[in-house]
Amino acid sequence: DAGVIQSPRHEVTEMGQEVTLRCKPISGHNSLFWYRQTMMRGLELLIYFNNNVPIDDSGMPEDRFSAKMPNASFSTLKIQPSEPRDSAVYFCASSLTLAGEVNTGELFFGEGSRLTVL
Amino acid sequence: KNQVEQSPQSLIILEGKNCTLQCNYTVSPFSNLRWYKQDTGRGPVSLTIMTFSENTKSNGRYTATLDADTKQSSLHITASQLSDSASYICVVTQAGTALIFGKGTTLSVSS
Questions:
Q1: Taking Cα atoms as reference points, which of A29, A32, A24, A20 lies closest to residue A2?
Q2: Residue B52: predicted pLDDT
Q3: Residue B5's closest chain A neighbor by CA?
Q4: I need a labelling partner for B91 at 20 to 30 A (CA). Which of A11, A42, A93, B31 fits?
Q5: B43 to A112: CB separation less than 8 angstroms, yes or no
Q6: Is A77 left (phi over 0), alpha (psi -120 to 50) or beta?
Q7: A55, A44, A46, A40: which is closest to A23 by C-alpha?
Q8: Nearest chain B alpha carbon to A110
Q9: Is A85 helix (H, G, I), strand (E, B) or coil?
Q10: Contact assignment for A43 to B41 by CB distance below 8 Å
């Protein structure tokens, strides 16, 4: 299996621009997570999907952030408009979660998308 | 408050030496604890997972311990190699609810 695939690996943009990050989870996994990692705060959960349905989006910082999962093999995280404080590494992870339980499976992370907002 | 605290924040050791990383947690109810290794510029990769009833788990030169009574875990690395240089993240699963991440320990192994 190719693992979790994220794109782009690096993105440099100017404040106010729209940023779209993409993720392809491991085939057969039913849970998908978006995390943000900074030196100060470590890994923070932004949003969690189970069977393509958003379950917990309490970590999404504000309305400028949105995430979608139109099907089991694709998800996007969009920031509009972007701000310098959004600069971070954004990770997508997937897992196989047992029915009726949350976060039971091992997380498999992608290589991350490093975002720099000038 | 559910928290995972790791120490030390960073560590430098000579190649071939052993080291131990610590993880203390206040997560309840507890489901399991995982250690992840994150190489620079890469995503985290799982090293070990331990449930409440397990107190030791090994993966090659990595040995994790868990004391569920004191809510402490450690990751021991034996005969360190340059490739062990990475961040090590402790993650505790709050049963049925969420994953609580520590901020990690950055290990540098020098020759």
A1: A24
A2: 84
A3: A42
A4: A11
A5: yes
A6: beta
A7: A46
A8: B43
A9: helix
A10: no
Span B26-79, pLDDT tens digits: 998 888 999 999 999 999 999 999 988 889 999 999 999 999 999 999 999 999
β-pairing verdict for A74-79 and A19-24: antiparallel
Q: What distance in Å separates the CA atoms of residue B77 and residue B10, rounded to the nearest whole number?
A: 15
Could you report the per-residue pLDDT of A87-108, keeping only the tens digit for each?
Answer: 999 999 999 887 666 666 789 9
- The more confidently predicted of residues A4 and B96 is A4
| Rounded Cα gap, residues A99 and A114, in angstroms | 33
The string of DSSP letters for B34-63 reads EEEEE-TTS--EEEEEEETT--EEEETTEE
Tell me phi and psi for residue A99, to 5 degrees: -60, 135
